[in-house]
Amino acid sequence: MDILNAISEIISDVLDEDELVVTRDTTADHAEDWDSLAQIQIIDAIEKELAIKFSLSEIEQLNQAGNVGDTVDLITRKLQAA
């Protein structure tokens, strides 16, 4: 499973920005509509798409993630621990 591609599709869908190129370096600043509500929707969609459930501390980490790469790393660690 390519987590970066899955997250990229989720972010593009939630933000309704088909042209957005999502890389490990992408941040919320790269998309005009990526606000706190969009962040919640992205996290919810990631949970559904990847069939995982984030703890409150993990959600906090996702909200504090500097870029998509940090999110990919957190998800990779979570999936490996399962």
Relative helix content: 55-70%
Briefly note the structural class of the backbone. Answer: mainly alpha
Q: What proportion of the residues form beta strands (DSSP E)?
A: under 5%
Report mean pLDDT, rounded to a whole number. Answer: 93
Query: In total, how many beta strands?
Result: 0
Largest sheet: none
Q: Helices, strands, pairings?
A:
Elements: H1 3-15, H2 36-50, H3 56-64, H4 68-81
Helix pairs in contact: 1-2
Summarize the structure in short:
The protein is mostly helical.
Task: Write up what this structure looks like.
This protein is mostly helical. Helices cover 62% and strands 0% of the residues. The chain contains 4 helices and no strands. Helix 1 packs across helix 2. The two termini are 15 Å apart. The mean pLDDT is 93.
Features:
single chain; mainly alpha; globular
